[in-house]
Amino acid sequence: MGFNCFQKNGALEKRKRVVTRVLPFSKMSAPGGDTFSDAEREKVEEMEDSEEEQEEMEESDGDQEGDGAGDGTVQPRVYIPGIEPLQPGEELEMDQTAYRLYHHCQTGAPCLSFDVIRDDLGENREESPLSMLLCAGTQAETAQANRLLVMRMHNLHGTRREEGDGEGSESESEGEGDEQEEKKPALELAMLPHYGAINRVRVTRVGDTPLAAVWSEKGQVEIFDLRPQLDAVHDSAIMATFLREQQKEATPLFTFTGHMTEGFAVDWSPKVPGRLATGDCKKHIHVWEPREGGAWHVDQRPFAGHTHSVEDIQWSPTEPTVFASCSVDTSIRIWDTRAPPSKACMLSVSQAHSSDVNVISWNRNEPFLLSGGDDGLLKVWDLRQFKAGRPVASFKLHSAPVSSVEWHPTDGSVFASAGSDDVVGQWDLSVESCDPGTEAGLPTLPPQVLFLHQGQTEVKEVHWHPQNSGVLICTALSGFNVFRTISV
Length: 488
Description:
The protein is mostly beta strands and 488 residues long. The chain has helices at residues 38-46, 48-53, 55-65, 170-182, 227-234, 236-245, and strands at 7-11, 18-22, 25-29, 77-78, 90-94, 99-105, 111-117, 130-138, 147-156, 186-193, 198-206, 209-216, 221-225, 254-256, 263-268, 276-280, 285-291, 295-298, 310-315, 322-327, 332-336, 345-349, 357-362, 368-373, 377-382, 393-396, 402-407, 414-419, 424-428, 449-453, 459-464, 472-476, 479-485. It has six helices and 33 strands.
């Protein structure tokens, strides 16, 4: 990974503040790499005589270009994903100054879905060290090797900015070593055996009980009580007992087998504790209603409307009976559970994208729905104008299918996106256009793009942390990244 910054200032219409737009990537030749091909080397040899005649002019030009222009070193160039592929011998390098926080970790088998578990440490946290709780599910090579994980990441400090020339006394170096040891991030893992790869995990709280809804390849949706795992990651003695006792597959609180096939779409209602909606690969959606004693009533009549696999579901943040869904059939639909399942689809856009609609996110502060599809497009839908069937904004950044989108939990104009091109983007819809990129000789990107993060392989999900301000977490085949940029 690695990054060199290109910055572009843009005034925000709403807040009238200045944001920094960063493409924190630079391309450099690998150490020992050959910069020239054979054909290029021949041209260089032919030009040697003429180069001697122009030596004084080149020296003058080198002075104007800056450090490294005349000493044979390779200068880093801004890297924009999807525009120019990396060439043999080139690699990406990271500019730590583009990040206020950056950590990465691995959990063995990849976790291609996760959710944030809210804690009791307060809201809008910014001061280091930060901590967070996550729940994730693995997709291991064998069904028996999968786990439902609860992770506690803590002692997360911000990135170190370079100061001075790095020289100092031996005592200063020892002091820095001690400080680095104290600032090492820590990870506690409590794992429950789970038969079958986990497609998607979503977490909620019902009273004081943290619950995880788990869609798996078994074709079942299971509800798990996360309290034993949460207790374990906070206490070493409890963890020791947990490790001794949790060697067999965990028993869920409740299991629904009515889908008859696997699926991915699942979401908890933010308005009614315990209310759940799930969608499967055979186009069916079921709504769950909580009952006393840790049970649920699931209406066996599916919500009818989609003609192919339901890919994602989002409950309204303001209306307790309303939810949205998207599908491989290219449509987005809005439902109201007060109507019978066969008549509950109130609004729909049949061709929301040109191919599969993979993910949606419902803005918590504005009447906007965000969608991402196999066509690589991101679209913003104003629900007040949904009947018209046209998005209020459409963006092309990703060069492959969009795999995840999510609005910022408190800022109604900011969202994050991730794609199969392994790019995670930060966006702000309130940034004004000012011909981005052209001034630096770069290909034009949407002016609303604030930051592009890379370095992971097969990125699947990205979530904002609802309590740690500006912090993004994303999971991929290569592990987890936790970061906060200088842009948000």
